[in-house]
Amino acid sequence: MKHRILAIALLVAAPGLLAAQTDPITIRLGPAPNQTLHGRTVQDMTMSIAPDPAAAAMLPIPATSIQMSMTIDTTATVGPADGAGHYESRMVCDNVSGTTTVNGKPAPFAMPTAAITGQAFTFFYDDAGRVIDVKAEGTLSDMMAAPIKQALSSAMASAPPITLTVGETVAVPTQMNLPVPAASGGSGMTVTGETRYTLVSITFDGADRIAHLKTAMTSTVNRDTRAEAGAPTMGADMRITSEGTSDVNVDRGIALHTEQRMTIDGTMRMAAPAGVTSTSMPEVPTMLMHGTATIKNDLAK
């Protein structure tokens, strides 16, 4: 009798469960206002740089392999929305640790974990929950702040809300101009591409809906530093592909877990200043880059 009642209950509930899985759902990738979040970001990267064997050059440069790992524990205080729906989130780096090796040996420079610990970043959101600006507080230099901002931005999200049914995929274009410090000035680093989100399933944590997403990103990065008179010109072209997963609490607007696995391929080039001959300044070969990186973000309950 009990089995029969259970079977009837399942038959009655099945249409509702099916509808919950197939109805469109809007997923906010950035945090919703008025909450405090404790998170951990772990980033691991390996990058190899070697001269292009096809490029003739007078200046020999040895191949280099760099490995970097960094763990950042953060507290983000998300404030209220204003009349236009805009709001801010102030994120403080509570604890930072990391290591860097060059060709398998400790790097000659130490990662400035002490300087980064206690550093605060403010993320500015529009009414759709999309990051429109990021500012670093304190005395941290732009060169030191840039990789930290990149790692934390993946935790805070920059894409607008997306609406999907289970099994559906949507592509969101990406276009950013990242300021890269350079004493001689330059046009910065431009990132263009798209990220594809696929809604795999929806589960429940109590009454809260948890959206499970697969992500795939393809983007290109271009930088061209227009040097001042007497300084060399530098440029870089990179292609970045990645795949990953994301678990989002739809009802609270919280990313519970995200993971991205990235592959980076590209070139770096440097040209002598105008009027400078190769005899007075050896020609630098085009450098080939290949790297992999993993960025994981987890929300502490």
Key phrases:
301 residues; mainly beta; 12-stranded antiparallel sheet; 14 strands; 13% helix; Lipovitellin-phosvitin complex, beta-sheet shell regions; two-stranded antiparallel sheet
Describe this entry's structure for a reader.
The chain has 301 residues and is mostly beta strands. The chain has a single domain, classed as Lipovitellin-phosvitin complex, beta-sheet shell regions. 13% of the residues lie in helices and 54% in strands. The strands form 2 sheets. Strands 2, 3, 4, 5, 6, 7, 9, 10, 11, 12, 13 and 14 form a 12-stranded antiparallel sheet that branches. A two-stranded antiparallel ribbon has the order 1-8. The relative contact order is 0.17. About 6% of the residues have low confidence.
Q: What would CATH call the class?
A: Mainly Beta
Question: Span between N and C termini?
Answer: 41 Å
At the third CATH level, what is the topology name?
Lipovitellin-phosvitin complex, beta-sheet shell regions
Order of SSEs: HEEEEEHEEHEEEEEEE
Shape: globular
- Oligomer kind: single chain
Query: Which class of secondary structure composition applies to the elements?
Result: mainly beta
pLDDT under 50 segments (min length 5)? 13-19, 178-187
Radius of gyration: 23 Å
Annotation field: number of helices:
3
Strand content: over 45%
What is the share of helical residues?
10-25%
- Assign the CATH architecture: Roll
Mean pLDDT: 80
Number of domains: 1
Summarize the biggest pleated sheet. 12 strands, antiparallel
Task: Give a count of the beta strands, DSSP E runs of length 2 or more.
Answer: 14
